[in-house]
């Protein structure tokens, strides 16, 4: 269960009385100076985030903090990390995205995949439609929902994808819009796992991104039908 408390001037969140900082596998606020090409993981694991093609910090758009990532290419982490391997157990992936195009075709928003394999987790848009896919064997997508709501063009969309036991839930702007069910472990990325953010080679999601957080071993919304969107950036220390 998610709880809140006030601490100084900050509203903190915690689950069952614990901070669960070790469950925050990736945390990106996309803070920085306009035009910067430095993208930082503020989790305790501090994963290296590389850029491909055009990706910069912009101060022209943001949800929190006065800046966001402006992507016309993609970000990626190419070193296998057990903290980004979400093959078993609960997880939660949250982000705010602002598409500047919803043209026809399929475009990656987030993916964890082994080179040459179907993705462990794959979140994309098809035109303006939000979709998710998960592979259990690296060759097919047994877990999917291809009608998870419509992304708003040139507006911020809040996306949260979670596994809660055997339930896979997609939320768009705080509303449960897509579901699938499986008790199987997801395909695991041994040795050559890649995490892609806002695109993949030849498949870029054009727009801005803010407040990306991955929780491993923990979900937040417990398959509820809706939740209130965050009113401040994610904490570096609390869930």
Model description:
- This protein is mainly beta and 239 residues long.
- It has a single domain, classed as Jelly Rolls (Sandwich).
- The chain has no helices and 17 strands.
- The strands form 3 sheets. Strands 3, 4, 5, 6, 7, 8, 9, 10, 11, 12, 13, 14 and 17 form a 13-stranded antiparallel β-sheet that branches. Strands 1-2 form a two-stranded antiparallel sheet.
- Strand 8 and strand 9 form a beta hairpin.
- The chain is globular, with a radius of gyration of 16 Å.
- The termini are close together.
- The N terminus is likely disordered.
Rounded average pLDDT:
89
The termini sit apart by 11 Å
Number of extended strands: 17
Sequence stretches where pLDDT stays below 50 over 5 or more residues: 1-15
| CATH fold annotation | Jelly Rolls
Molecular shape: globular
Measured as a percent range, the helix fraction is under 10%
Strand content: over 45%
CATH class: Mainly Beta
The helix-strand sequence is EEEEEEEEEEEEEEEEE
Q: Give me the secondary-structure category.
A: mainly beta
CATH architecture verdict: Sandwich
Count of alpha and pi helical runs: 0
Query: How many domains make up the coordinates?
Result: 1
Strand count, sense and closure of the main sheet? 13 strands, antiparallel
Q: Determine Rg (CA atoms, Å).
A: 16 Å
């Amino acid at each position: 269960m998610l709880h809140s408390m006030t601490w100084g001037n900050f509203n903190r969140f915690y689950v069952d009385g614990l901070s669960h900082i070790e469950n925050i596998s990736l945390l990106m606020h996309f803070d920085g100076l306009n035009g910067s090409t430095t993208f930082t993981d503020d989790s305790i694991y501090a994963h290296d985030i590389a850029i491909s093609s055009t990706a910069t910090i912009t101060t022209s758009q943001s949800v929190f903090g006065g800046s966001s990532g402006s992507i016309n290419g993609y970000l990626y982490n190419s070193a296998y990390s057990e903290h980004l391997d979400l093959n078993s157990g609960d997880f939660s992936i949250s982000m705010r995205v602002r598409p500047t195009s919803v043209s026809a075709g399929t475009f990656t928003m987030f993916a964890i995949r082994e080179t040459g394999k179907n993705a462990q987790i794959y979140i994309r848009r098809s035109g303006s439609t939000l979709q998710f896919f998960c592979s259990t064997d690296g060759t097919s997508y047994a877990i999917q929902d291809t009608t998870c709501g419509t992304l708003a063009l040139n507006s911020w969309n809040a996306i949260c994808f979670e596994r809660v036991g055997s339930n896979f839930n997609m939320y768009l702007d705080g509303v449960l819009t897509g579901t699938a069910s499986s008790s199987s472990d997801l395909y695991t990325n041994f040795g050559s796992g890649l995490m892609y953010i806002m695109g993949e080679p030849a498949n870029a999601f054009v727009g801005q991104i803010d407040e990306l957080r991955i929780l491993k071993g923990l979900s937040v919304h417990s398959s509820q039908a809706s939740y209130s969107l965050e009113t401040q950036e994610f904490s570096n220390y609390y869930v």
